[in-house]
Amino acid sequence: MSFLTLENVTHHYFNKNNYTKALDDISFSVKEGEFVSLLGPSGCGKSTILSIVSGIMNQTSGRVLLDDKSITESELAIGYMLQQDYLFPWKTILDNVLLGPTIQDNVNEELKEKAKELLREVGLQNVENQYPSSLSGGMRQRVALVRTLITDPKILLLDEPFSALDYQTKLKLEDLVFKLLHAYQKTAILVTHDIGEAIAMSDRIIVMSANPGKISKTFEVPLELRNEMPFLVRRHPKYQSIFDKVWEELNKSETRTV
Ligand SMILES: Nc1ncnc2c1ncn2[C@@H]1O[C@H](COP(=O)(O)OP(=O)(O)O)[C@@H](O)[C@H]1O
Ligand SMILES: [Mg+2]
Fold first, then answer.
1. Is residue 99 included in any domain, yes or no?
2. Is 0.90 topped by the overall pTM?
3. Binning pLDDT at 50, 70 and 90, where does residue 255 land?
4. Is residue 244 situated within a structural domain?
5. pLDDT at 194 over 80
6. Across residues 98-116, what is the average pLDDT?
7. Is residue 168 part of a domain?
8. Residue 75 pLDDT
9. Which domain range does residue 222 map to?
10. Strands 61-66 and 2-14: what pairing?
């Protein structure tokens, strides 16, 4: 059963004198527990889709349903993680993690324990009283992940969360996020322009093209790759052939716009 559904979603950004058609007739759905990637060149509307799904922005036309309710009426928690970690430098790691619940006046001892437990799970024991400036980029992004998970979101939106990190850190974080999201059986949409990352992390890849943003093709990741850890997927004998197919599709849509 589909958990999230986008039906004929179109979006225009308007400014004083003209407008940009950022999304043109986007339809897809995501099942509960599924991990889907949106893959495409810069400007093809990936972040616009996540902003609409998160409810921050309204689409110009079309429908977005989460668990059969309009996204604007849904009360299910949505987790949103971005390329930048947006940690407050003057707050401790624990206070940063508890930011959402603090705003909603929901903090109690149990939640504090849960925050510490999640920090331990991402390999960050004993940092809760430190400040973001004393942590590396990869550690800060792990804090951002914990802050996203603490509200127990029903769907996670990940907008290029690894792209500001060095390659080794990125590969390690891919494994960590994959492991955690599978353990908690989370539904997730990952936005990326990295073909390898899309294959390594997801069950399904939605390839987009730009001007205006459209879906050009959807690829199912072979079953043998889906349950492997991302690091191992890249070495799997079946990896190269799906990589080549996705590459070809991305190339096709790029030549259309050049
Ligand atoms: N706030 C905005 N105002 C005007 N145009 C925007 C705005 N945000 C994005 N766009 C335009 O919409 C298109 C899609 O952008 P975006 O969703 O950010 O793409 P992506 O995340 O795939 O790089 C691009 O042409 C971009 O320039
Ligand atoms: Mg973007």
1. yes
2. yes
3. low
4. yes
5. yes
6. 92
7. no
8. 81
9. 1-76+154-160+187-258
10. antiparallel
Specify the ligand 1 atom closest to the Cα of 211: 25
**Which atom of ligand 1 is found nearest the CA of 160?**
21
Kindly tell me if the per-residue pLDDT of 197 is higher than 80.
yes
- Taking the CB of residue 124, how many other CB atoms lie within 10 A of it? 21
CA distance 49 to 217: 16
Q: How many Cα atoms within 13 Å fall on the side-chain side of residue 248?
A: 8
- Strand order of the β-sheet with 35-39 is 78-81, 155-159, 187-192, 35-39, 204-209, 214-220
Residue 83 has pLDDT above 80, yes or no: yes
| Ligand 1 geometric centre to CA of 248 (Å) | 24
Using CA positions, which residue lies closest to atom 24 of ligand 1?
43
Dihedral of alpha carbons 225, 230, 235, 241, sign: positive
d(CA 85, CA 254): 30
For residue 43, count other CB atoms closer than 10 A to its CB: 16
Is the pLDDT reported for residue 253 higher than 90? no
Ligand 1 neighbours (beta carbon < 6 A) = 13, 20, 22, 40, 42-48, 213
Note whether residue 17 is domain-resident. Answer: yes
CA distances from 86 to 17, 27, 47, 89, 137 (A): 33, 31, 17, 9, 12
CA of 212 to the centre of ligand 1 (A): 10
